[in-house]
Amino acid sequence: MSGLNAYGVVQINGVYLAVVAEALMEAVHWPADLYPHPLTRGALRGVFTLRGKPVPLVDLRGQLAEGGDTSLPTPLVAILKYGGGYLGLAIDAVCDILKARDSQFSPLGPGGTSVGLLPSLLMGAEESRMIYKLDLGFLSSLPGVLFAADPSAQVLKEEALAAKNRLLHYLVFECDGRNFCIDASVVTELVDNPEISASDFASDCCFGVTSVRGTKVPALNLSEVLGLDHKRQTSKPQLLLLTAPDGRVCGFGYDRMVAIQRQDPGSFLAAPGYGLPHPELLAGVMNLEEGQQALLLDHPMLLQRPEVKSYTQVYQHDVKPAQASHDVTKAMLRHACLLFDAPTRFVAPLSQIVEIMSVPQQLIGLSQPATHLLGRR
Q: What pTM did the predictor assign?
């Protein structure tokens, strides 16, 4: 069964017309600055301006009711959008908003088809009111009917599409009371509750070593590598794994995952260059909800830190150039996935996840029997 479609009902010379709600932008008064078009004919009355943009004015009163006076202005003009353009339609009133299925309209075209300016009819709640569907495609083909293109709208559409294509996934996580973020595409793996063993080369920079599918991976102290103040700890509950260009893998401990966000890299604020021991390790600042921020890690620079390279070389000293190239290629081809409990454990490709955020405090409840829908934000 087809779904419900929304329509705006307008009145012209006593005739009720159903206009697709998406096309009905607004209703304005008859313009005082209506100018004739050089090719004015048919239903075209002229052109006026609306907020600095030209709008053709179409009057269907002559087509809908013979003998009616079409010389006087109508009380309102409906602004309709169709096919990337828009026009003004002379109307007497906006009467109603209704929802109906296509099957509720009765075809009135030749041979029972839905063809023509008013191709089908809907009987209203009041039996005396007949509502005709207005076919905007047919309207655009009538003599004299013009739709003004909106170049700025096309530009905005292209800019929005380009901005969407620029969006990247970022993992936002907390470590030692600070929020950090990193490009999700460079993360090799997230390890939950890693078993970290004591290292023979233990230091403030390294919690120890863990084994990930047979590979010894150093568990490093992110705050220590960044040179930031932190409380001394012996381990971390989570581990973020990164693969260096030479194929070696290192892990950075963190406390918890905060969110996954899609954001334009160009929207990041510049990272502060003062008061930081290693400002080159931070690539920017991401704005989060409720005024919070996260520091963007510069992962190439992070992997080039001497202490990071030293620990990975100690535990993965037998990585050969050919194997390194193979390992890096495997890491690039590997699909990042999110593992979560809800309450059953699920896994989902990260590329299919738009965003992860905290549950909103205020939700709009929906009156419906489904129990899986909490509400609408």
A: 0.52
